[in-house]
User: Fold this.
Amino acid sequence: MSDSSKTIAAIIAGAAVGAAIGILFAPDKGSKTRAKLKEGFDDATHNLKDSFDAGSEVLRAKFANATQNLDGTLEELLSNVSHKTEDVISFLETKLADLKAQNAKLQK
Assistant:
């Protein structure tokens, strides 16, 4: 283990021991202490759920926007390819007409 990992582990262990001692020597009855712990746990769970829901909404909005952008980009790409295809076909038709004209001259 590195020094920072040992330090973090020591801090966590110290906090756990401190919390355990605090609960043992708390001035309230065990039932009140358990109720406070449950209330704190419920609050933390509710806050975590709210944060998760808010994060999920942000991600959904970003993915929806990305999907719309991708759809627009794909349609634009297909349109450009279609126009380029028409340009290539026109070019080939012109070259074919030129080759036919040259062939006709050679056959006379």
